[in-house]
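Hi team,

As requested, here is the filled-out complex form for the adenosine-5'-triphosphate run. I kept the field names the same as last time so the parser does not choke. Let me know if anything looks off before we queue the next batch.

— J.
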Amino acid sequence: MTEKKQIILRTEQLKAFYILEMHGTQKIVKAVNDVDLTIYENEIYGIAGESGCGKSTLLKALFNDFVPPLRLVSGKLYYRIDWEKEIDVTTLSPEELRQLRMEYISYIPQGSMSALNPVLKLKETYKDFIGSHLGDQSREEIFELAYKQIQTLGLPKNILDLYPHQLSGGMRQRVTIALASLLKPRIMIGDEPTTALDVVVQRGVIQMLKTIQENFKNTIILVTHDMGVHANIADRIGIMYAGKIVEEGTTEQIFGDPRHPYTQFLINSLPKFGDKNVRHSVPGSPPSLADLPTGCPFHPRCPHVMEICTQQVPEFSYPDEHHKVACWLHSAPQAAIGEGKHE
Ligand SMILES: Nc1ncnc2c1ncn2[C@@H]1O[C@H](COP(=O)(O)OP(=O)(O)OP(=O)(O)O)[C@@H](O)[C@H]1O
Ligand SMILES: [Mg+2]
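And here is what came back:
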């Protein structure tokens, strides 16, 4: 993160809620709640957090994929498609969006390795995929493109003649990633691509993502709850809690100098080589996103809770370049309490 990089995707106070109508009452699940993200070209940005904190919803929002009951409530989402200017993609037509997808930004959804069509050989899946995005191409051209990519990514050559069920889980996941990278998108979004794979297979998938990013010099936004995977692959990490990014920094900052008590719990729960002490997971359980506590959403579980934490959502403070944290321990609570007192 020393050289200056171009911004490729940016959000401003993004709010994406599930709005459910039930028996005449409305339930609002605040899954993405005021998120400001700035993602640079040619980086791997990791998003971490416990189950249900809104990671997948954030990725759907970044892909501009708002399917009811999910709604974009407020905020902005910009892509830098053209180096001259950013485009607010929430204003694009469905056709304009379709063109951006897979070519500018691709998305590997959670559990997608089981999404390959089971009755088609992979070469037919490639053909359908290429046909729907690149229009009329001959079978030879399509297979040449497919074979070339498979070779570049180090996948076995015969793979195109196989059906998905003939592949191991790890190989299926690699094929899904290969398809998502086929049109060399500037941004790839991956939702838990290594989850449900054993550690050795995970390593292969991580290596493949790194190879893609190095070859194409593109950007990967990667969600996983596994901090070990982030340590291996991410350049920067955003820690998500209850729909918010509560800390962000380079991988070195997050692991070497975690500031938010929640981040500290996540890091301390990682097993360490040779350490026989019992690892503690985060105490308590996450709040319901339909009924958030007042103030800092982490305060009911926080060992350092102060009065202000129960009253006001903390603003970001910036302990170092690239590093930001939303926690009253770092935001001069005395001053904030003073300010909150004018009546
Ligand atoms: N279609 C939906 N309708 C209503 N609520 C939903 C829907 N999908 C997700 N949610 C809720 O939104 C919140 C965030 O879910 P999300 O799937 O984004 O979390 P996550 O961090 O990806 O979790 P996991 O690690 O388990 O994949 C959760 O409370 C979830 O129950
Ligand atoms: Mg998820």
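Two things worth flagging: The pocket of adenosine-5'-triphosphate (ligand 1) is lined by residues 18, 20, 29, 31, 49, 51-57, 69, 110, 225, 289 (CB under 6 Å). Residues 199-216 form the longest helix (18 residues).

Thanks,
J.
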